[in-house]
Amino acid sequence: MSFTGDLEHLPIVDVIQLLHATRKSGILRISCRKGESQLVFKDGFIVSANHLNNSVRIGKILINLGLITPELLDQTLKEQVYKAKNNLFPDNKLQERVLNLVPYLIKYGFEFVDFLYNKVEIEKVDHQLLEIR
Q1: Is residue 116 within 8 Å of residue 110, measured between CB atoms?
Q2: pLDDT tens per residue, range 71-100
Q3: What is the pLDDT of residue 37?
Q4: Cα dihedral sign for 26, 32, 37, 41?
Q5: Residue 87 falls inside a structural domain
Q6: Is residue 108 in some structural domain?
Q7: Domain limits at 20?
Q8: Taking CA atoms, which of 18, 65, 93, 117 is between 20 and 30 Å from 109?
Q9: Is residue 19 part of a domain?
Q10: Cβ–Cβ contacts within 10 Å for residue 41, how many?
Q11: Rg of the Cα trace of the chain?
C-alpha cells in the first residue's frame, strides 16, 4: 500500500497514526505555503524529520513553543553527534576497518557476495545503505 496525491483533507495526525499502526517505512513529504517538509518512517516510527528550507529548524520551533529548553536542545544535539561518531568510528577506527566479511558469509552464505555485487554502486562515492534480510 502506498500513499500518493493530495491528502489535504486528512488531518496530518491521522496520516501519521495510520503509518505507525500499519508499521510502514518510507518518506512522507508535506508541502504547504511555507515550504516542504518530510518525515521519514521505519517500521511505523518517525526516525527523521526535516524542513527542506534549512532556515526552519525543528529545535527552534520547539523552543519557541515552550516545549523544550535551549539547554535540552543543545544536549540532544550533542548526543546525536556523539552517537553518529561512535557509529562511524567504533573503537575510534573507521567502520570499514572493523567489520569483517566472514561473519556475514557464515550467516548468509556465499550468496551474500552476489548480493553485494548486485547492490553496491561502485561509481557512487556517497555512503550507501543496504538492507540485509
Answers
A1: no
A2: 999 999 999 888 888 877 777 776 665 567
A3: 85
A4: negative
A5: no
A6: no
A7: 1-56
A8: 93
A9: yes
A10: 19
A11: 19
Gap between the Cα atoms of 77 and 92, Å rounded: 20
Alpha-carbon distance 4 to 33, whole Å? 19
What are 29-57's pLDDT values in tens digits? 888 777 788 888 989 998 888 877 767 77
- How far is residue 26's CA from residue 120's CA, in Å, rounded to a whole number? 21
How far apart, in whole angstroms, are the C-alpha atoms of residue 24 and residue 105? 30
44 three-state secondary structure: coil
Burial 8-31 (b: 16+ CB within 10 A, else e): eeeeeeeeeeebeeeebeeebeee
Q: Give the number of domains in the chain.
A: 1
**Cell 553527534, residue?**
81
CA–CA distance, 4 with 30 (Å, rounded to integer)? 11
Distance CA 120, CA 128 (A): 7
Q: What is the pTM of this model?
A: 0.46
Contact of 44 with 22, CB cutoff 8 Å:
yes
Question: What would the grid cell of residue 61 be?
Answer: 520551533
- The answer to whether residues 30 and 38 touch, using CB atoms and an 8 Å cutoff, is yes
> Phi and psi of 127, rounded to 5°?
-60, 150
